[in-house]
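User: Could you check the structure of this?
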Amino acid sequence: MIHITECPRDAMQGIKEFIPTDIKAGYINKLLKVGFDVLDFGSFVSPYAIPQMKDTPLVISKLDLSTTQTKLLSIVANMRGALDACFFDEVSILGFPFSVSETFQQRNTNSSIEQSLKTVEQMKNLCDQRGKTLLVYLSMGFGNPYGDAWSPEIVTNWANKIAEMGIKNIALADTVGTANPEDIKNVFSYLIPALPNVEFGAHLHTKPNDWQTKVDAAYTAGCLRFDSAMKGFGGCPMADDKLTGNFATENLLAYCQQNNIETGLDIPAFDAAMIEAQSVFVGHN
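Assistant: Sure, the predicted structure tokens are below.
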């Protein structure tokens, strides 16, 4: 069985036209009925940096969590955001983007890798105190287009340092969609047996014609947790290729069906959410 994190936050955050709070909440409520393991639903970051997510607290107030086991994940970029997220009992998981690329870390969180490592430690302590889980994304996990050094060994080194803090959830991100299947397989094939106490996930950005080889590389290397977004909306705004977007959830389900892999999802509820996604994203593009 694989575990799926649906990512409406990642799909929405780059849309310039503000999506009304009620529409966001209505869509997320439909997603909550599907049975995803986790919903990456919002973020506590600067409204100037990501104006689309400025209403995350209001969205929370409109969610129906009474009949779902799905956990809510919010992205945070610094301790202020982490403290804001911890105020809400509904938020179970805090996600922090930690890059193995110095250039991308500065662009994404305005801090160095070493500073960000200290932030990770502080967030882990806060999460332990508040009963939350910290998920660390290793951005540029499968390559680096900025000219910084990259290798599976560099990724492994940072993963080890994060795991030594007691963090048990790490997602490797193909941040700008440049990963190749060989690197994906090599990184996971080493990390998963080397750090058996860590649950690794894959946050893949793909093109319409390369998703299958990427997901197959991760799955055959032992990865059982995948991030995706319905219809492949969203993705990293720093990717040069406009065809590169989030890994489409419907493609992930097709892969699972072809390979007899259980997902535990409610398919009629999934189909209803897909219809809603079309109106949400096409209407606010």
